[in-house]
Design brief:
Length: 160
């Protein structure tokens, strides 16, 4: 029987004190880390499900992730020509308390997250050109459901 031993990974990164090279222990192997990162979903996330339940409970009906609408919005209200994006504060660089800039592998993360933010703006511009109204719900806003519900209702009722 062949036993695979798990070797701890030490990752080098630039420390805060005098820019010294520091080593950080990663308890996961490269394969385990990759598998864990692949579990991060882009649809049906917990924040999205909260918004969907809230909107559905208010009596609104919508389509999900419509591929024919630029940016594949999370919720699409076709008769109203309105869309809602539910964004995670980290992945879309909200800048709230919940968002923290990655400390390691900055050369990888900074361009990736900046690209997400730029793509979000491009999608909003394309939707505006096609006469769609957009709303972004941030992950950090889900704690105050009463305020969020009134904001959603105002957005969906405005202009009818």
């Amino acid at each position: 029987m062949h036993v695979i031993t798990k070797q701890p990974l030490f990752k080098e990164w630039l420390g805060r004190r005098d820019n010294e090279i520091m080593r950080r222990y990663d308890p996961l192997t490269k394969a385990e880390r990759s598998e864990r990162m692949s579990r991060i979903r882009n649809a049906d996330t917990k924040p999205e499900m909260i918004v969907r339940r809230l909107v559905h409970g208010m009596g609104y009906r919508y389509s999900l992730h419509a591929r024919d609408v630029p940016g594949n919005p999370d919720l699409v209200f076709r008769p109203r020509r309105k869309v809602i994006f539910v964004h995670g504060c980290f992945w879309h660089q909200h800048g709230c308390r919940q968002y923290r800039q990655p400390r390691t592998r900055r050369a990888f993360w900074e361009p990736k997250l900046a690209q997400n933010k730029a793509r979000d703006e491009d999608v909003r511009k394309m939707l505006r050109k096609q006469d769609w109204k957009t709303m972004t719900v941030w992950e950090c806003q889900l704690r105050r459901t009463c305020q969020l519900a009134s904001r959603l209702r105002r957005f969906l009722e405005k202009g009818l």
